[in-house]
Amino acid sequence: MRDRFVLDGTVYLDGNSLGALPAHVPDRLADVVRRQWGELRIRSWQESGWWTAPERIGDRIAPLVGAAPGQIVVGDSTSVNVFKALVAAVRMARETGGGPDGAPAAAGGGPDGGPSAPIGERGGAPDGEPGGAPGGEPGGAPGGGPRDEILVDATTFPTDGYIARSAARMTGCTLRPVAPGDVPGALSGRTAAVLLNHVDYRTGRLHDLPSLTAAVHAAGAYAVWDLCHSAGALPVGLDEHGVDLAVGCTYKFLNGGPGAPAFLYVRHALQDRFDSPLPGWNSHAEPFGMQPEYVPAQGAPRGRVGTPDILSMLALEASLEVWDGVPIEAVRAKSLALTDFFLECVTAYVPAGRVECVTPLAHEERGSQVALRCPDAGQVMERLIDEGVVGDFRYPDVLRFGFTPLYVRFADVERAARVLAAVLGEAVRGEAVLAEGEGRPEE
Ligand SMILES: Cc1ncc(COP(=O)(O)O)c(C=O)c1O
Ligand SMILES: Nc1c(O)cccc1C(=O)C[C@H](N)C(=O)O
Question: Which stretches does the entry tag as region Disordered (predicted)?
Answer without folding.
Answer: 95-150
